[in-house]
UniProtKB/TrEMBL annotation:
Class of the enzyme per the UniProt entry, highest EC level: translocase
Transmembrane residue ranges: 40-59, 80-103, 151-171, 183-203, 236-255, 267-286
UniProt cross-references to PANTHER family, sorted A to Z: CYTOCHROME C OXIDASE SUBUNIT 3 (PTHR11403:SF7), CYTOCHROME C OXIDASE SUBUNIT III (PTHR11403)
Name of the protein described by the UniProt record: cytochrome-c oxidase
Length: 287
């Protein structure tokens, strides 16, 4: 582009369609939590809608980029936009980590008679605070029968995600050096590691429901476990899809060593997801 002009994209229908699809998915998910399989069709329709919108939106942005419509100002806009998006994600997970911290540090000791608000122990005088909370204070709620050892599947998934950050970094450095084959191979390995993580997480969820009694109804432990690991798993799925798109673009020769912010933004997102998992591993599984 010339004259320092700024590209203004055409009016897009994808944001509103994406919002509607996301709303449908969340509505269906909420109905499923209350009424079981009744909400599954709506949830699946919403999920399909989100994936469809992502595909068409990616297509449009790629066409604009390949068409030479973006300049340095647009590059700065993309970078700031991605940085603020990741910041919003940090705040999103901080809220759930904060809830976990509040329950473990304040609420449970209060219910056990400790601290300035220990009068709360009058609600359930026989309750003894412990974490993981296998015996909720309300006897009508069944807690989990057991918890996961952090040194089995959780540790494997930790090693997988840490390794995926390394392979992605190698791919990124190779791309900057113009080593397209190396970038392709290491990026493909990153996508494969992401798929492995998702698979193992699915196995862990099956084990949680089938053998450990860890469900969303299993008291505060089950609720915080699935809210934290579930939303993180969703981010891993999204990140894997994005990296797969980046892999397809690398195969088509879309990036250069100097112009590859799409790849770089995907890398930022993936590294953020990896850091969140380290926090989950430590504070959900280990401590």
């Amino acid at each position: 582009m010339s004259g320092g002009s700024y590209y203004v994209p055409e009016t897009s229908k994808w944001p509103i369609l994406g919002s509607l699809a996301l709303g449908a998915m969340m509505l269906g998910s909420g109905v499923m939590l209350v009424h079981g399989a009744v909400g599954m069709p709506v949830m699946l329709i919403g999920l399909f809608g989100i994936l469809t919108v992502m595909g068409f939106w990616f297509r449009d942005v790629i066409k604009e980029s390949r068409g030479g419509l973006y300049d340095d100002q647009m590059d700065r806009s993309f970078r700031w936009g991605m940085a603020w998006f990741i910041f919003s994600e940090v705040m999103f997970f901080a809220a759930f980590f904060g809830a976990l911290f509040y329950v473990r540090t304040f609420a449970l000791p209060w219910l056990d008679g400790e601290g300035a608000k220990g009068v709360a122990s009058l609600l359930w005088p026989d309750f003894t605070a412990s974490w993981p909370l296998l015996n909720p204070p309300d006897s009508s709620i069944a807690g989990p029968t057991d918890t996961f050892s952090p040194w089995h599947l959780p540790l494997v998934n930790t090693l997988i995600l840490v390794s995926s950050s390394i392979t992605l970094t190698v791919a990124h450095e190779a791309l900057k050096e113009g080593l397209r084959a190396t970038a392709r191979n290491w990026l493909a390995g990153t996508v494969l590691l992401g798929l492995c993580f998702i698979t193992i997480q699915g196995v862990e969820y099956y084990e949680a429901y089938a053998h450990y009694g860890i469900t969303l109804e299993a008291g505060i432990y089950g609720a915080t476990f699935f809210m934290l690991t579930g939303f993180h798993g969703l981010h891993v799925i999204i990140g894997t899809i994005i990296l797969a798109v980046m892999l397809a673009r690398v195969l088509q020769g879309h990036f250069t060593g100097e112009d590859h912010f799409g790849f770089e933004a995907a890398a930022w997102y993936w590294h953020f997801v990896d850091v969140v998992w380290i926090g989950l591993f430590l504070f959900v599984y280990v401590f």
